[in-house]
Amino acid sequence: MSAFILLMGIAAALLLQLAVFAGIGFWRQWRAYQALRGVAAAQGMPVDALAEVDAPPPAPAAWAGYRNFRVARKVLEDASGQVCSFYLAPQDKAPLPAFLPGQFLTLALDVPGPGGASGPVVRCYSLSDAPQPAHYRISVKRVAAPGSSALAAGLASHFLHDHVAVGDVLRVRAPGGHFYLGAGDAPVVLIGGGIGITPMVSMLNGCLQQHAGRELWLFYGVRHSDEVAMPAHLRAVAEQHPNLHVYLCLSEPQAKTAGDAADHQSGAVHYHHGRVDIALLRRLLPLKPYHFYVCGPTAMLQSLVPALEDWGVPEERIHFEAFGPASIRRNTSAPTLHAGGGDAPAPMVRFAKSNKQVAWDASMGTLLDLAQAHGVAVNSGCRAGSCGSCQTAIASGEVRYLSTPDFDAEPGTCLLCVCAPRTDVTLEA
After folding, report:
1. Mean pLDDT, the chain, as a whole number?
2. What is the spatial distance between Cα 60 and Cα 94, in angstroms, rounded to a whole number?
3. Model-level pTM greater than 0.85?
């Protein structure tokens, strides 16, 4: 046997071994994959849900500036009369662009001031329904104003409830926002606290409209059943869709109300005596790759978001939005700014137009808080980076955003309500 034939035989044997090993590896991977598909099918989860497909990023604003909308309907949504839905139809009757469920509208309201003169008050309200061709819907809770300021919280909601009537015209910016329901078939958990139910209903209705078979859980936290918004609608969709599980969580139940007495099931809706917390979620939710969407007061988010992460939910599957600015501890959060201390001096903030200079103090929260605490006049609306009212030019220096804003600030400007100085900074305010 020649050396060449021997060499070819050895090479063929090596190739055969490699092919056998590759085949065995492929077979093992295929069996593991089929087992995973079997587990998913046994749990009633669509196989496509194993690879979640996110929704496309929000498109640019459908129109520039403000557009006139007529109030077509007003509907009270709760037994206490504190939540009112406004159906807004475009005055020009042009077709309405769709939006991503969970997004919001920005309204400029001409609210009368103490002296009788009206001034624009800018507020953002979540859309509370799936996209409709002829109208948008927002649902607004009446909020008691805590102070005498013309821009105090509650001013806009009282104006809408008490002074805006059917037929009135409101100025509205196009839908926007980065908090919205992702596409795909992965199971979803929606958690709303108080008026935070509005984007959850938008997501719920949108999902049932586009992906009726998707597994959905809704946890809705209020004090008592009189505060439940849209109870008839929630009951109706729960009865129509067996894949939807609705839990109303009452933190301060009233024994006089049947739905408040104790944990029970009323039709397709479950009542829970207590807050929405991680113990309730762990008790009720099967082990599946859920996407969690949370909207509510800051206290709810500060409790739930870290707890979900500690439970092992990946950060990319936890989506949240708070009422106004919120500082939420994330297990993978970036380092925060320090107000001086050690060898690093506190940044200086100069307000050029007001001719004031102040040493930054992180305990104030944001540059907007700092400005207002020192008598610097700055327009503000949502205080959450959504409406753009506090957009201010930066003459020099750098700022850092404490949370990602929904409003896209112009180059060379910043939104004071959600940022802090990174260096010494001069602002045109």
Report:
1. 82
2. 18
3. no
